[in-house]
UniProtKB/TrEMBL annotation:
Coiled coil stretches, renumbered: none
MF (Gene Ontology): oxidoreductase activity, acting on paired donors, with incorporation or reduction of molecular oxygen, NAD(P)H as one donor, and incorporation of one atom of oxygen
Record-stated family: Belongs to the FAD-binding monooxygenase family.
This protein's name: NAD(P)/FAD-dependent oxidoreductase
Cofactor(s) essential for the protein: FAD
Extent of the signal sequence: none
Species of the source: Oceanobacillus piezotolerans
Lineage: superkingdom: Bacteria
Keywords from the named record: FAD, Flavoprotein, Monooxygenase, NADP, Oxidoreductase
SUPFAM superfamilies to which the protein is assigned, alphabetical: FAD/NAD(P)-binding domain (SSF51905)
Length: 533
């Protein structure tokens, strides 16, 4: 017997988007429940608990800003927060907002379909279904894991973990032979951390990465006070920065090409010593816009790798060769230094690809690598995977994933809305900004969507739906900006190229945060992109 509960709204996923949406809906008098597959809140930070997991956005800006009391009631310990601290922050938020009574944990939503006869979403969990007027999947773009398709992997007798499904119990890495597949943000952090404990770490690298140096000092009492005292200007400062991280100003407001090579090199050396993560990308005002300017930085970073890594062959294999910023830059403490350890070795999969998994490990064209543990730091089926898994059917039973043709025909209106899927708002995921700090975007978009609901509610409207014109227009904008940006010039998850056979398409908004706010305002201010009934 299936019980059917009736609500105004269902939210799925207790990350930054889902929590804020639930809060606003409840404050606005809607009956709402947030369903979360995990046993706690946190979203990304609940699932990604691999060794070394940390955020590369300064903690000061990796927070909600909609409430002064909420902001000031939490004190971050360091400049870049660790996974466990962010998880604690999110628990603090839901407790402070008293949201737990509207959250149901251990509840994976299996599917949802729009019932046109009653204008309601029917949302299916394992044992029950819910009818809701509004549906808000806040399931994240990076939640469907990707694991390389290596023949014979099932024969491996050791342990296997994906970074995004890391066990909650401690995994004993001490004295183990560990293979890490992948050198994105998760891989780099895992490699550095596991090397401290493992007998040996073998890194299986497909594409070499630019990894920017960083330090992570504890915040002093003086800094914490300053952060709190500056709250009144915080949101303004965040929204005035191209990536929503105002601790990284443009240091030289002119082209990198306008300095002499000697001066540029001196300046880059200084920044390397300062080790302030993403700050490098804002050294000059055109590093992310002009390929020649970009090359000055990538040349410098390759030189640093050669200087740091003792073994010339390993150094050579670690040299990236693409536009920095075209794929997500990685930030870490002493990554290249890790390759000088006796217990770390590198396999360049471009030279010696995988042949198969074996009982004892992984065989490449060079040899069999014997391992006790394989860590898959191999990323995600970004954007499209979560929508496929969510099984969302709109009018006439059309699956959203079919409408999008698995990504080949991806279309949205402002990332959130789809023609044929009335009263449904995707929070985060496709067509949201690619390179911008997440909490400020979540706040901006959740509030925009909430205001949109209020606007139509006050007019007595029951059903709103994106028009095809609005959808085409937003999608064209995404594609035009994407094509102009470095994101279309480098293979990565930004464009679907990280997974063999995945349709290549720009998955997100490639402009900066200022442009995004302008475009969103233009697209949503008059609500002309919706039909209402
Ligand atoms: O995933 P990724 P991630 N055979 O896709 C390799 C955020 N994040 O989990 O580069 C062999 O970046 C793949 O190789 P290639 C952040 O936005 C933030 O690391 O595609 N290798 C790559 O090296 C980030 O961008 C933080 O050629 C294969 C790696 O696996 C996003 O999450 C921390 C392969 C995947 O890298 C995703 O990061 C962690 C195959 N078949 C994550 N398939 C911080 O804030 C893939 N790879 C610090």
């Amino acid at each position: 017997m299936v019980n059917t509960l009736e609500l105004d709204a269902v939210v799925v996923g207790a990350g930054f988007y889902g929590i804020y949406m639930t809060h606003l809906l409840r404050e606005g008098g809607y009956s709402v429940c947030l369903y979360e597959a995990g046993e706690e809140v946190g979203g990304t930070w609940y699932w990604n608990r691999y060794p070394g997991a940390r955020c590369d956005t300064p903690s000061e800006f990796y927070s909600y800003t909609f409430s002064e009391e909420l902001y000031k009631g939490w004190i971050w310990s360091s400049f870049y927060p660790e996974q466990s601290e962010i998880l604690d922050y999110m628990k603090y938020v839901v407790d402070k907002l008293d949201l737990r009574r509207d959250i149901q944990f251990n509840s994976r939503v299996k599917s949802a379909e729009y019932d046109e006869s009653i204008n309601r979403w029917r949302i299916h969990l394992n044992e029950s279904a819910i009818l809701a007027k509004y549906y808000f999947p806040a399931i994240g773009g990076l939640s469907t894991i990707h694991t390389p398709n290596i023949k014979g992997l099932e024969n491996f007798v050791g342990e296997k973990y994906h970074t995004s499904r890391w066990p909650h119990e401690k995994v004993d890495l001490k004295g183990k032979r560990i293979g890490v597949i992948g050198t994105g943000s998760s891989g780099v952090q895992s490699i550095i951390e596991t090397a401290n404990e493992a007998a040996h770490v073998t890194v299986f690298q497909r594409t070499a990465q630019y990894v920017l140096p960083v330090k992570n000092p504890l915040l002093t009492e003086k800094e914490i006070k300053e952060i709190k005292d500056n709250f009144s200007s915080l949101r303004k400062r965040v929204r005035a920065h191209p990536t929503g991280m105002p601790s990284f100003p443009i240091l030289r407001n002119y082209s990198a090409l306008d300095d002499t090579p000697e001066e540029r090199n001196r300046f880059y050396e200084q920044l390397w010593e300062e080790a302030n993560g993403f700050q490098f990308l804002f050294a000059y005002n055109d590093l992310m816009l002009n390929e020649k300017a970009n090359n000055t930085l990538t040349e410098f970073l390759r030189k640093k790798i050669r200087e740091i890594v003792n073994d010339p062959e390993t150094a050579d294999n670690l040299l990236p060769n693409y536009l920095i910023g075209g794929k997500r830059p990685v930030v870490a403490i002493d990554y290249f230094e890790t390759y000088n350890r006796d217990n770390v070795s590198l396999v360049n999969l471009k030279k010696t690809p995988f042949i198969e998994g074996t009982e004892r490990g992984l065989r490449t064209t060079e040899k069999e690598h014997e391992l006790d543990i394989i860590i898959f730091a191999s990323g995600f089926d970004v954007g499209i995977g979560p929508i496929r898994d969510a099984n969302i059917r709109g009018r006439n039973g059309l699956l959203l994933n079919e409408k999008w043709e698995n990504g080949a025909n991806l279309k949205t209106f402002v990332g959130a809305c789809n023609h044929g899927f009335p009263n449904m708002f995707l929070l985060g995921g496709c067509h949201y900004p690619l390179g911008v700090n997440v909490p400020p975007i979540a706040e901006l978009m959740v509030k925009r969507i909430y205001d949109c609901l209020t606007y139509f509610k006050e007019k007595g409207v029951n059903v709103i739906e994106a028009t095809t014109v609005a959808e085409e227009s937003w999608t064209n904008l995404i594609n035009e900006i994407g094509e102009m940006s470095f994101y279309s010039k480098v293979d990565s998850w930004f464009n679907g190229a990280n997974i063999e056979g995945k349709p290549r398409t720009i998955l997100g908004y490639a402009g900066d945060f200022l442009m995004y706010q302008e475009q969103i305002s233009k697209a949503m201010d008059e609500y002309n992109g919706f039909t209402a009934s």
